[in-house]
Structure formats: structure tokens, C-alpha cells
Specification:
Helix content: 55-70%
Order of helices and strands: HHHHHHHHHHHH
Largest sheet: none
Low-confidence stretches: 20-50
Distance between the termini: 21 Å
Oligomer: single chain
Strand content: under 5%
Structural class: mainly alpha
Number of strands: 0
Number of helices: 12
Mean pLDDT: 78
């Protein structure tokens, strides 16, 4: 109860600051480049080229990629609110320790079919599930699901979403990693009609508790860029995501 009270107060404070402050600090500058996950690419430089991942090893892998592969990585990064590349001077971010798949894994998964990824997800571990979840997120037109429709394609997508949600919640419990939390938030935001930005905000808070030292800064930036988020909705989303930490098999 104390944790919930503290978090609720934090969100309320961030909303107040976002609505009343006219000053630009470092977090707000990041927010400007981050924007809304649904309509901006936080991994792109001003010239349109993709920004490299945050860690030195990831950057070395990144430089070896083709332009098409770099574009793929930038697209994936945008699905997860820029968390593959978001870093500030002096931050030493180890994406592998935070649970992120490496560059080569993303590239290899892109060449697989939906059915192959699903078979691997059902028989494999958390990484295979992460790759399938990512594919499902990528299938939502405009990153905004319109709900179950009347066609066979609509029904097939709805089934994939159900599978992906189950895998995502399971991964939070099995890995307890920041990436699993970010991915679950991205999935639920994308596959709820109208989106769920409160889920994204909540993922930053939980990821901070799980060891992502950038997450508090990213939460402040996100709240500054999305000023209409309801604090109670963020707390509810946070409680929902955190509840899966106590279930090794997920919900």
C-alpha cells in the first residue's frame, strides 16, 4: 500500500509539472525527440538516419548492418519507446542485462514467418516468445487495433493477440526484466482499442524498479510529452504489470 501511495503521488506530481512548467530541462529535451510512440521515431537523427543502440557492443553490431537492417532496428526501437537507443551522456547501459535481444537476433527473426515464430514461442523459452510478441505488435495497422472484425483475417489476428498477451505476461514472471515489461506495455497499448498510454508510463516505473537506470528519466519525458494521461490509470496499469512478477508462469 505504501508503494502504491508513493507511486500515485509521483505520477500526480509529474502531471502537475508537465502541465505548469514552461522550462526546458534535459528530460523535456528527450521528450521532444521521443514524442508519441504511435507517430514518431525516437531513434532517428535529424537527417533521418537511425540512431545506434546505447551499448558499445550493440553499436559495433549495429555498424556491421546494412541500411535495410538499420532501418529495421529503428522500427523495432520505435515500438518500444526508444528504449533500445535512449541514453544520456555518462549512462552505461547494458541492454543484454536488461533483457533486450541482441541486434543479430532481431535481424534473424525478421526472416521468419509468423507460423515459425509461433511454433518456436510455444516450444521455446522467453526469447522465442519475445520474438513472436514483437511480430504481433508489428502486424497492427497504425499501431492501433480497431478490435475484432468480421473477416477471417481479423479473427486470425485476434487469436495471435491472445497468444502474444499470454506470452508477454508469462515473460514478466519468468525473466523479471525491464524489456519484458516494456514489451508487455507495447503490446497492450497497441492491441487495446484506442491505445493505452498509461500502460507505457507504468512500464517505465516498473522497469526502474527492475534495474533500468534510465527509466525514471524516460518516465518524466513521457509524461511531459503526454500530458493528458490519467494518474489513476497509470497506477492501475502499474499494479497489473507488477502482479505478474509474482507468477513465474505468468497470469
Amino acid at each position: 500500500m505504501r508503494t502504491k501511495s508513493i507511486f500515485a503521488a509521483l505520477i500526480a506530481t509529474l502531471l502537475l509539472v508537465a502541465c505548469t512548467s514552461g522550462k526546458k530541462d534535459a528530460a523535456d529535451n528527450v521528450a521532444d525527440s521521443m514524442g508519441s510512440p504511435s507517430n514518431s521515431d525516437p531513434t532517428a537523427h535529424a537527417d533521418g538516419t537511425a540512431q545506434a543502440p546505447a551499448t558499445a557492443r550493440a553499436q559495433n553490431d549495429y555498424r556491421a548492418l546494412s541500411q535495410n537492417e538499420r532501418s529495421l532496428l529503428a522500427t523495432i526501437d520505435s515500438r518500444y519507446f526508444g528504449t533500445l537507443s535512449n541514453s544520456s551522456p555518462g549512462e552505461d547501459v547494458d541492454l543484454k542485462k536488461l533483457g533486450f535481444p541482441d541486434v543479430n537476433t532481431w535481424v534473424a527473426a525478421e526472416k521468419m514467418t509468423d507460423d515459425e515464430l509461433l511454433r518456436n514461442a510455444r516450444s521455446g523459452g522467453h526469447l522465442e516468445k519475445e520474438l513472436y510478441i514483437d511480430r504481433v505488435v508489428s502486424l497492427i495497422p497504425g499501431n492501433n487495433w480497431k478490435g475484432v472484425g468480421d473477416t477471417a483475417e481479423d479473427n486470425a489476428l485476434a487469436t495471435k493477440i491472445m497468444d502474444a498477451r499470454s506470452f508477454a505476461l508469462r515473460n514478466i514472471g519468468t525473466t523479471k526484466s525491464p524489456f519484458a515489461v516494456y514489451q508487455a506495455a507495447a503490446l497492450f497499448n497497441t492491441t487495446e482499442v484506442g491505445g493505452n498510454p498509461a500502460m507505457i508510463a507504468a512500464s517505465f516505473q516498473l522497469a526502474a524498479e527492475l534495474g533500468d537506470t534510465r527509466a525514471t528519466r524516460m518516465l518524466q519525458s513521457y509524461m511531459s510529452a503526454n500530458r493528458n494521461i490519467d494518474a489513476k490509470g497509470v497506477l492501475a496499469a502499474y499494479t497489473f504489470l507488477k502482479s505478474d512478477l509474482g507468477h513465474p508462469g505468468g497470469s
